[in-house]
# Entry
Amino acid sequence: MNLVTLMGRITAAPELKTTSSGINYCRFTLAVDRKFQKQGGERQTDFINCVAWRQSAEFICRYFVKGQLMAVTGSIQTGSYTDNTGAKRYTTDVVVDNAYFTGDKRENNNAGARNTPPDDYYENNAPAANVGNDSFSQTNEEFVPQGNSRGTDKSFLTPSVPDDLPF
# Structure
């Protein structure tokens, strides 16, 4: 299973780019503090390279700026390439599926975001957007996934399960 959850500060303003085939993406780095620190020492920080594609990239570039606190979920992807000198280089990136605002509304607005997200993102204590594969609509002033929800409690989603499971 390859799952990653990170929370940290963006080290530079994300920039939307497009591949030669027309797919939007952005690369950015999150500065993530380590959980523990040596006694009397400073807390260590890891700088983790991330890449977001399509709607996730558009969302991140639109609403997040340098220094802003952000949470992401996704997976680790490794790769390699040969540089100009002929040396083989290895890469490790977090491929972002979902991006979330963290901190309070005041902190995010003071960060100088390019566009201010709707107030519902904060007031309902929901992520600013789930920019993965789910489609969302705004109903009764809250973001609710379309389909898959059961009953009146919108905070719990029940996945559909086929009746012919092999176990």
